Amino acid sequence: MSNAHIPESPWFAYREGTLACEGVSLESIASEVDTPAFIYSGASIDHAYRSIDQALDFAPHLIAYAVKANGNLSILSRLATQGSGADIVSGGELQRALKAGFPPEHIVYSGVGKRREEIMAAAEANIRALHVENIQELDVVESVALELGRPLSIGLRVNPNVDAKTHPYIATGLRESKFGLSLPVAESLLPRIAQSSHLRLEAVACHIGSQLSSPGPLREAIEILGGFAARCITQGAELRAIDVGGGWPMHYGQEVDPYPPAEAFGAAIREGLESAGMLRPDLEIVTEPGRALVGDAGVLLTRVLYTKGQADRRFVIVDAAMTELIRPALYGAYHAIMPVAEPASDAELSPVDVVGPVCESGDFVAKDRALPEIKPGDLLAIRGAGAYGREMQSMYNARPLPPEVLVDGARSRVVRQRSGPEALWQGEILA
Question: What is the tens place of the pLDDT at every residue in 346-364?
Answer without folding.
Answer: 999 999 999 999 999 999 9
